[in-house]
Amino acid sequence: MRTALLQSSGRPGSAVENLKVLDEAAGRAAAAGAGLLVAPEMFLTGYAIGDDIARLAEPADGDWADAIAELAARHGIAVAYGYPERSGETVYNSAQLVSADGTRLANHRKTHLFGCFERDHFTPGERTVVQAELDGLTVGLLICYDVEFPENVRAHALAGTDLLLVPTAQMHPFQFVAESMIPVRAFENQMYVAYVNRVGQEGEFEFVGLSTLAGPDGVARARAGRGEQLVFADADPAFLAASREANPYLRDRRPGLYGSLV
To answer: For residue 20, how many other CB atoms are within 10 A of its CB?
Structure first.
């Protein structure tokens, strides 16, 4: 499945403008033959927007979700995007996957919150593995800091995730995560990992870009730079099956030895 990674911070604080950016990117991605567009963490509203997070948060089936479902169906491309999700009085840092016909397929609430900023504005989610079927692939969702915990990614591998989508807001000086950790996560868990970042200065944070789609051989199929970009790479089920046959990590596990980890 050809996958487009939208590396952009959009227009922080304006869901209207970010929807326009997403719409334009979806059109470009679909025209280039992509079946999936992935946007960064909190793309719909912006990340470093303080108390506007709570003001702009909406339910997973809210008006903005409907608007994204409409643009996905209009362009004929699946879309994954980050946004602040409201459930009653609780606000989560969430990512949602919508199919190419506008059906909401999966919604993940970030389980591991990073730093005081996130802990002040969000409640952590409680489900590690959220998946959906898309064009013959089992697609999973994590968000940014979630992927830095190997247990999260291994749980996805054991549940059969083929392509792990990771909308992120990775900041300086942690660029080694995009450069080194993501390809290793893909290799050790025998899956594709699409890690899609914000860029530039936003409030107190400097986002480093470097979005990548890494394959099960640990090789980056696409790597963005430090500016706004739309980059493309393929997640190939046949290559994934051959790689899993050749690399026995999951078969050679000895879970009885790992009890002390939990």
So the answer is: 14
pLDDT tens, position by position, 27-51: 999 999 999 999 999 999 999 999 9
Write down the residue that tokens 């994590």 correspond to: 142
Cβ-count burial 110-140 (b if 16+ within 10 Å, e if not):
bbbbbeebbeebbbebeebbbbbebeebbbb
Q: Is 234 left (phi over 0), alpha (psi -120 to 50) or beta?
A: beta
C-alpha distance from residue 133 to each of 118, 217, 244 (Å): 30, 22, 19
pTM of the predicted model over 0.85? yes
Q: What is the pLDDT of residue 177?
A: 97
Would you please indicate which residues are annotated as catalytic (active-site) residues?
41, 110, 144
